[in-house]
């Protein structure tokens, strides 16, 4: 649909995909010829693994924005400070002790598959520890429910760490080999002998304030429970799985310390990358490769990454309307993809102010499978497909192993089996719903009509010389990947 009245008037007309592509591509092309900083793709829920990022690189722009800074950047920061990877991937099934600073049997990332693994672990005898101020469904299943005062989780984790250290329950071999304890001594205690036992002594001194009594006062739970839980964790050793996501880590000031101190317990017990432990996310995630990799952009978009926020772990999306209001920049073309800040962000009216200012925001395209409050203020609303209406490659770190989900649009596959020739998925989807892979190919092709922008070369078919890329070219590449892996494995065997 295309807006025909003022933004927010709710007046629309139905247009063809060709018209939408022609008009939007012209706006993007005009913008790219002047600047590389005024086209932004703002995603709430990402789709195809890495596909949109590739498109933006092909356009030569630093145009990716996300909702992550108000969603999970707190937890991500704490993990990234440990080992670069900013998500955990716990092996709950094989754990002896499972600690959740969450309610993962019913909510959170990735509650459904995690719930299955947690129950499997408990059926094998694993103890479940749940840190949650509410008596949630998950807490009701716990062997130890720790109803900590919100924001006090880090204090409890540090007290547990101190007990594990002082009781000698830590994994000495792991820490000697994987912790930079020698750098710690050289930089903070240069007069000390560079010996591991000296490091342990110094660490115990540094953590002196984190007593069970201190943690009990901060968290308002019983100190005996803290001691009991610490011993459970210490004795679990390498089979200790943990998880935290939004609640404690993003809902409190300093929440990044929650994930950081939680993972400290995995480091102390040597349960990092072990069976029954907690691994870095990327170990259990498939990343598809494409036939062509555009170079990174040679531009920096300060509306996404303001220079004064040097420690931001993700884009500063929550202040985008304020940056624009303060005159830090304008946007020619703004895509929102399954993103509804008018409703989900804490200052929705600031977003309405930005979205209705045609001088500062030239064109707003809402890519969405459902109607929402943000789409109401768009210039174009383009329907995107649900899982059964698009091709998709997905992989998530939901368990100790790598898996790939390959989705297909049901009606397109039916048409193929019926012998019908289909050029685009929207031809058979209800309501002419398109899938983004095809949309981005067609849009990119039209942006660079003459090839002078250097975009078209990244959308050439690897199978048909000098021909435009089509969706099935991409699908063929992915479908061949498992065969190549199988061939490699057989060769090694």
How would you describe the overall organization of this protein?
This protein has 20 helices and 15 strands. The chain is of the alpha/beta class and 493 residues long. The protein folds into two domains: 2-63 and 297-384, 3-Layer(aba) Sandwich (Rossmann fold); 73-284, 3-Layer(aba) Sandwich (Dimethylsulfoxide Reductase, domain 2). It has a five-stranded parallel β-sheet, covered by helices on one side. The chain has a four-stranded parallel β-sheet with strand order 8-7-6-9. It has a two-stranded antiparallel sheet with strand order 1-2.
Main β sheet profile: 5 strands, parallel
Distance between the termini: 56 Å
CATH level-4 homologous superfamily of the largest domain: Dimethylsulfoxide Reductase, domain 2
In CATH terms, what is the architecture of the largest domain?
Answer: 3-Layer(aba) Sandwich
Secondary structure: number of strands: 15
Which CATH class of the largest domain is shown?
Alpha Beta
Low-confidence stretches: none
Q: Tell me the count of domains.
A: 2
What is the SS-derived class?
Answer: alpha/beta
Produce a short descriptive summary:
The chain is of the alpha/beta class.
